[in-house]
Amino acid sequence: MAVTLQQTLIDIDEEQLVFHLHNDQISYILGVETGNVLAHLYFGPRVRGYHGERQYPRIDRGFSGNLPNTTDRSYSKDDLPQEYGGNNTGDYRQPAAIIRAANGARTVDFRYQDCRMEAGKPELKGLPQTYVEDEDEAQTLIVTLRDATLGVTLELAYTIYRDRPVITRSARLINHSEQAVDLEKVASMQMDLPTQPLDAISLPGSYARERQLSRERLHRGVTQFESRRGASSHHMNPFVALADPNTNEFQGNVLGALLIYSGNHQISLERDPIGQTRLTMGINEYNFDWRLAAGASFQTPEVAMVYSTTGLNGMSQTYHDLLRDRVARSRYKHDLRPILINNWEATYFDFDADKIQSILDAAAPLGIEMFVLDDGWFGHRNDDNSSLGDWFVNRNKLPGGLADISKRTHDKGMRFGLWFEPENISADSELYRAHPDWVLGVPDRGRTLSRNEYVLDFSQPDVVDNIFEQMTAVLDKVPIDYIKWDMNRNLTEVYSPHSDSAHEGETSHRFILGVYDLMERLTKRYPQILFEGCSGGGGRFDAGLMYYMPQSWPSDNNDPIERLKIQYGTSLVYPISAITAHVGTSPDELLGRSTSMKMRGAVAMSGTLGYELDAAQLSDADKQAVKRQVAFYKQHRELVQYGTFYRLESPFESNTVAWMFVSPDQKEALLFTFVILGAVQPEPHITKLVGLDPQQTYVETDTNKMYGGDELMQLGLYTTPVQTSDFTAQVHYFKAKD
How many CB atoms lie within 10 A of CB 192? Predict the structure, then answer.
C-alpha cells in the first residue's frame, strides 16, 4: 500500500508502517524495518508518494552483527539508516542515547511501539522552541520507541509546518521502571543519510571573531562541532548545514539543522565505512549525567531542520522567517528597532550624571532614539572587581539614582536602556558575603576567576528567585524601555554545593534551565521592555536566547572590516532584525584600525543600527555624518530589518563584499557593496542583483537613473570604487517606478 498525499500533512501507512510528513515544498519519510527498528528513508524536496524504494538492501557485511537473538547475517543495525540509534547492540556508530541501568550496563535498544498524531505543535515546558499561532499551521507525529529491558520509552516528536520547508524534532524519555536510570547522553535528534558526497558548513569562531563561516568536505570518521563552555559560545554555534558540493548561495540542495538551546551542545557527523552520514545533535554528553527517577521524564531541546533547493540564501531566508515569526515571542519581534547609543566605549566605568547628560545633549539632535547605560551603575562598581550580584544603584556615582537618568533621557525624547549581568557575582559584593554557597565551585578546590567574577548557581531556584527579586525592585520603580542582558564568562568548576553526587551531572543543564526560567519571568512581567541578549559580545547568540529576546549583540568587535565576516556568517541562520550593529570609534577600540565614518556606518546600517561612542566628542563633520546615517536608516529601517536578505559576495572568498535587501513586494531594494583593500589598478568588478521583478523598472534615487529589474540582475553594476583607498563602501537604493 503506497503512501499518498492527502489534505493532512502526515500520512501513515498502517500496514507497511511508513510515515510521510509533507507539504508543498518538502517530504520527510521514515518507516519501521525488520525487528521494529525505526529507519530513516528520505528528507528532501516534495514527492507525491512513497512506494518502498528505500527498503534497505540486505547484504552480509563483515563484522556487522545481526540483530540480538536472530541469525540473519544480511541485516544489521551497524549499517541500517536509522532515526535514533541505541548503544552497545551492534551499531558501532555514534549513539543517540547512552543510558546506564542500575546494574551498570549501558546497553540501549529502542524498538518501535506505536505512534500518534496531534494538531499543531505540543509545548516543550521550560525550554525555548518553535511554536504555532494556529493549530492548522502544523501537525505533529509522535513515534514511541521502547527499550523493554530498561523499561524506558522514547517519544520522538516530528512537527511539519504547512507553509515552511521546516521539520522540528525533539525527544522525550520516560522511565516506566521501578528503578532510577542515568542518562549519560540523550540527543535531540539523529538521522542517517544515504551515501553521497557532502560538505559540512559550520560557524566556528572566538571572542571578537564570532561565527566565521567554515566549509569542509566530509570524510570517513567523525567530525564534531561542540561547546563545553556552559554556553552556546563564541567558539562554535549550535548549527550545521549539509550541502551538495555544488551548492552555493543561489542554487543547490542544502539541509540545515539548528539546536534551539543556549548551553553545552554537541553536533556529530559520522561518515561510516560505506559512505553513509549520521547526523546527531543535542546536549553535549560532556559532564552530563541525568538521574531519571522511576516515573520521571526528560525532555530534550528542539532541533529545527530546514531543506532548501535554492542554495544557502534559500535556507537562510527560511530560518530568518522561522526565527523571527515562530521563535521570537516579544511584542517587538515585528517592530522597528530603535537606534541607540551606548556609553560603554565612551566612558567605560568613569561616568556620572553630568557625563551622561553631555552624551544625551549631543545624541538627541542627531536623531538617535535611545540611550543605554552600560556596566558600572550599581553597587560600588568603578571597575570590574566588584558588585556583580548587588543590583541596587551606586549613589556615589549617581546621587539622583536611575530615576534621574531615566528622566533626563526621556526629557530628551529618547528611550532609556539599562545593562545587567544577572548570572554572575563578584567576591566583593554583599550577595557573596551573605551567600558564598551560591557560587558554582567544587569543595576543597580553588575557583577559576574570569573577568574577576564567579558564576552564580542558577541550577538552584533560591538563587534565581533572589536575582529576580533584585531586578524587579529596580524595574518596578524606574521607567526602563530596554535591557541589555550580558554574561561575561564561561562556566568552570560546574558543581552545585546544594546538589548531591547522584545529581551533580545535571548541574550544567539545570543552570541553563534556571537562566531560561528567569528570562521567562522577566519578559512576561515586563512585556513593554525590549530585551537584548549579549555574552561578552556574541558568546550566546543562539535561537534559544531569541525565544526570550528578539535581538542580540553579535560581537564586541566594532571594526567594520571584521564585522563584514561576523555579520555575513551570522546571517547564515539568524535574521537581520536580531543582529545589532554599532558604529564605533576610529581607530577601533579592539583592533586599532582606522576606517571612515561612511564605512563604519554602512556596515552598521546592515543590521539593527546603534552607536558605541561619545557623541559629545565627535567633530562637527562626524556629527553631520551621523545625522545623515540616522536619517537614511530611519527611511529604510523596515526594509533592512524585515526585508528579504540576500548575500551576494562573501568576505570569506573575495576582496569585494556585497549583500542586499528586497521588500516583500519587490518594489524596493537596498544594495551594500564593500571593497576591503584598494589597488593602484583595480580590477573592474560587476555586482549582479537578485530577487527583483524582471519586468519592473527601478530608479536609483541618488542618480535618478533607471534600470530594468532584468538589467540589474543579468548585467549588474560596476561597483569598483573610483578612489583607490582601503575600506570603502557604497550604498545604492532602488525604487520601482510608479
Answer: 22
Q: CA 214 to CA 223: how far, in whole Å? A: 13
Looking only at the bridges linking them, the beta strands covering 111-119 and 138-147 are: antiparallel
Question: Beta strands 297-299 and 166-175: pairing type?
Answer: antiparallel
Dihedral, CA of residue 69, residue 71, residue 74 and residue 78, to nearest 10: 30
- pLDDT tens for 601-632 read 999 999 999 999 999 999 999 999 999 999 99
Q: Assess contact for 645 and 661: CB atoms under 8 A.
A: yes
pLDDT digits (tens, 9 = 90+) for 693-733: 999 999 999 999 999 999 999 999 998 776 678 999 999 99
Given 11, 147, 374, 556, which residue is catalytic? 556
CA-CA distances (angstroms) from residue 548 to 168, 289, 563? Answer: 19, 27, 25
With left for phi above 0 and alpha for psi between -120 and 50, is residue 474 left, alpha or beta?
alpha
Report whether 100 contacts 184 (CB < 8 A). yes
Contact 338, 195 (CB under 8 A): no
Active site residue 321: no
Give me the catalytic one of 91, 390, 486, 542.
Answer: 486
pLDDT tens-digit readout, 410-444 = 999 999 999 999 999 999 999 999 999 999 999 99
Contact 294, 178 (CB under 8 A): yes
Strand partners, 583: 611
Starting at the edge strand found earlier in the chain, the sheet holding 644-649 runs: 644-649, 656-662, 668-675, 728-736, 697-700, 705-708
Q: Is the pLDDT of residue 6 over 60?
A: no
Active site residue 428: no
Does pTM top 0.90 for this prediction? yes
Residue 196 near residue 335 (C-beta atoms within 8 A): no
Q: What mean pLDDT comes out for the span 628-652?
A: 98
